[in-house]
UniProtKB/TrEMBL annotation:
Residues 1-15 have a biased composition (Basic and acidic residues). This is Ubiquitin thioesterase. GO terms for molecular function: cysteine-type deubiquitinase activity; ubiquitin binding. The lineage of its organism: Eukaryota, Metazoa, Chordata, Craniata, Vertebrata. Residues 1-25 are annotated as: Disordered. Belongs to the peptidase C65 family.
């Protein structure tokens, strides 16, 4: 009688997995994948916290030459563009890279500009005061937006009382105050996009409605901003914004764009891929 052929011994964990069947194996793989994803997310959150502790929400104003230090000397494209930028602007004020930089940069720059323009301050205050009712009329719940609007108005009234630049900077570096302003500016942007949805629907990709776009890409914190956001906020507040675009395009200098086109800007921002800072003209 031929001896029975022995099967090679398998590792214990493989035998256990086989005895449990393919469905259980899939579950274990899914659990491992979920654990890995959670570990990555936790690591990213730690990195974000480290950034938060190491960089201010809005920095002190520094000489435009500060930008040279962020690129190597042999990075000819960026060094050339910084030189071009320096022919028009003398200083820059950086913002934290947290996905809210456009709104934070705009908010600070606009209120800072109003410190020296009392007539424009009164116009802007009236627009801001009315904006809450406009949002409510569009369907935003009043109890949801009330606190954000109040914080926004408080800052405008602080400027009206002729606070110092240092006091305004301190307010924008207080996390709750600064974030409430960002939230309200996001709501204003969303409200204007939805109000003018017939126009903006042609610029929304992915088969989404304007309302869906707003709920996914405008209202949530940390969502980055593009042309459509800038256009809407500028129109909502009747403000002119100039953005200087500095990227790796080999065009010799920075490209500027005014929102809306043909306007006389009072807010000047620097855009580098994924980020906005504040500029100060010479």
């Amino acid at each position: 009688m031929a001896s029975e052929q022995r099967q090679p011994k398998q590792p214990k964990d493989v035998k256990q997995a086989q005895s449990l069947g393919p469905d259980r194996v899939k579950v274990e793989v899914q659990d491992d994948t979920q654990a890995y994803d959670e570990a990555i997310m936790a690591q990213q959150e730690r990195i974000q916290q480290e950034i938060a502790f190491s960089t201010p929400l809005v920095s002190n104003k520094v000489n435009i030459s500060f930008l040279n230090k962020e690129y190597t000397d042999d990075d000819n494209v960026y060094q050339r563009k910084i030189q071009d930028l320096g022919s028009k602007y003398g200083h820059v004020r950086t913002t934290r890279r947290d996905g809210n930089c456009f709104y934070r940069a705009f908010g600070y720059s606009q209120l800072e500009a109003l410190m020296d323009n009392p007539k424009e301050l009164q116009r802007f205050k009236a627009v801001a005061a009315k904006s809450k009712n406009d949002l409510v009329a569009l369907g935003f719940p009043e109890f949801t937006i009330e606190d954000f609007h109040s914080t926004f108005m408080d800052l405008i009234e602080m400027v009206e009382r002729q606070i110092s630049e240092a006091e305004l900077l301190a307010a924008f570096n207080e996390q709750n105050t600064s974030d409430y302003v960002v939230v309200y500016l996001r709501l204003l942007t969303s409200g204007y996009l939805q109000k003018e949805s017939a126009f903006f629907e042609h610029f929304v990709e992915g088969g989404r409605t304007v309302k869906e776009f707003c709920s996914q890409e405008v209202e949530p914190m940390a969502k980055e901003s593009d042309h459509i956001h800038i256009i809407a906020l500028a129109q909502a507040l009747n403000i002119s914004i100039r953005v200087e675009y500095m990227d790796r395009g080999d065009c010799g200098g920075v490209n500027q764009h005014d929102f809306p086109e043909g306007s006389s800007p009072g807010v000047f921002l620097l855009y580098r891929p994924g980020h906005y800072d504040i500029l100060y003209k010479l």
